[in-house]
Amino acid sequence: MTINFSDCQLVRPTLALHEAFEAFVDDFLLYDGPNSNEYIPSMDNFPEYIRALHRQSQPSRHSSEATLCHHFWLYNSINQCIYGVIRIRHPLEGRFLLTEGGNIGYHIAPSYRNRGLGKLMLKLALPKAHELGIERVLVTAKEDNLASRAIIQACGGQLENVVYGPILGYRIARYFIHLSGEQQ
């Protein structure tokens, strides 16, 4: 299947895309089980899952959690397919986000990997991060994930260092992307 990148956009999670998201999750269950865990709750109660994602982007007076998380889906409206999920987190607080997680984390559905969609999704997310007031974006990748590292570098990522991530249990390449008024 040929993918026309101009038909793709980042959209906020919505109930209207239930079937498309279900297909996205099924793809993970079939081809990348370990990374499907964070999407499985959507299968039990999709409306609550969507509400939970939206709550994560709203400051709460009732929580000590200071980091907000804005969720977006890489969606193709022509074939009604969700190719990926990307999260923008800010401010970076706590050891995990500062060392291992970073400002941006993303997944591409296994069936759509190695087609340039990760790069497209990260490029589309950078202006959104800038709109949220982030000027220096931390993006991380497993040290041996050369494809993810190439995506980050293609989007302007400059290697800061490689560290051992005690929570994830592996070496992590940490990149910074400096944002300005204009995106690359």
Automatic annotation (TrEMBL):
<dbReference type="Pfam" id="PF13302">
    <property type="entry name" value="Acetyltransf_3"/>
</dbReference>
<keyword id="KW-0808">Transferase</keyword>
<protein>
    <submittedName>
        <fullName>Putative acetyltransferase</fullName>
    </submittedName>
</protein>
<dbReference type="InterPro" id="IPR016181">
    <property type="entry name" value="Acyl_CoA_acyltransferase"/>
</dbReference>
<feature type="domain" description="N-acetyltransferase">
    <location>
        <begin position="15"/>
        <end position="177"/>
    </location>
</feature>
<dbReference type="InterPro" id="IPR000182">
    <property type="entry name" value="GNAT_dom"/>
</dbReference>
<dbReference type="GO" id="GO:0016747">
    <property type="term" value="F:acyltransferase activity, transferring groups other than amino-acyl groups"/>
</dbReference>
